[in-house]
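ZP: hey, is the DWN complex queued? I don't see it on the tracker
AM: it wasn't, my bad. submitting now with these inputs:
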Amino acid sequence: MAGAQTRCMSCRAEAVEEFLDIGTIPVANNFVPADKLDSPEPAYPLRVGYCHNCKHCQLLDMVSPTELFDDYTYLSGVSDTISEYLRGIASGLVGRYSLGPDDLAVDIGSNDGTLLTGYLAHNIKVLGVEPAKNLLELSSAAGIETVCDYFGLETARDVLKQYGKASVITSINNFAHVPDPHDFVQGVDVLLKEGGVFIVEIHYLMKMVQDGAFDTIYHEHMSYWGLTPMIALFEQYEMQAIRAEVLDIHHGQLRVYVSRKGELEPDETVGATVNRERELGIPGWETCSKLANNAYNVRTELLSLMDKLIDQGATMAGYGATAKGNTLLSFLGVGPDKLKFIADRNPIKQGTYTPGHHIPVVSPDRIATDKPDYLLILAWNLTDEIVREQSDFLDQGGRFIVPIPHVRIL
Ligand code: DWN
């Protein structure tokens, strides 16, 4: 791996300064199979920086996308909340842009095809673009055709040749995962029909800073976008934001609707969101430093709470074998000595171990058999769904610990 990348991937200025160093840790979604526990586990620096020129935030050390995404454990369809949300994006776009059977909808980073299934009831032509070979079987079973590749200019040209232009292109929790956003945007420009719309949704730096959600930082997330720097990127390709929505899903997301300049008119949400960023100074060096301070505060507070409860004889496990959870656990140095297991509904993750500290990932059934006193919710963005699903645990006296935005016991 090369040294720290201080050249901004968006404006290309040599102006990126580190504001938080999580440590040298394994890739968050590289859960370890039982028969590989003694094998060497690659670990990489995880440092995030701020560009003093265009305000973009990005990692200083990029891991190869093939190592991150060729074989991928996260499934969009495991959580009911996320599945309904993604299908709702598709049906919402059908209404907003009056899509019909002649329209092609392309989803980039389509995972198991969940979002695209939201178009099927409307008889829209759909196509996924997804590099993870292990997910193809799932998307095909959902009736979704998928191009198994990374998206960029070359893949866009291939898709254009075989399927024609797309009326809508979505990239939901995918755009922040690419090492070269320029190549990606050029691909969108090639594939998007005249008058078409590109809908990009990412974890929103403003919400990260407001919630102190430093655990959103992991090697998959190469970028941490605000709207202001994102607009500057699109400007370079004669494209413009025509709508911006700030959403609570996941850990707080920004959805941006993009068209070519002169094709569709921006609405008032773009200016309002840019103004809000300016008022709050986000993105900004001071607010990024605030995010870093929260990381250290959560580490101190959560470790002392866990140690106190364990000293009192309490037993503890985790819920949600998440990428963000692996950042949190690595940053705190928490292993199976503190968390006996981590429960997760995702069958791909069950039977594996967390990267680095090797905490066993098991089915949620284990909660009823082992009866831990506390469950640390590592998918804190889905706390409501998890608490509903685990109501028996609560009824039998169990308690949840939620780490972000601040440590609290439910
Ligand atoms: O950006 C990304 C986000 C969208 O998803 C990806 N780079 C990786 C991934 O991040 P994550 O792993 O932190 O995502 P989640 O959505 O917080 O993961 C939730 C986990 O919790 C899944 O493994 C499923 C599991 N879960 C469960 O076992 N029971 C979730 C719910 C709601 C449940 O009831």
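AM: back. The chain has 14 helices and 19 strands.
ZP: great, adding it to the tracker
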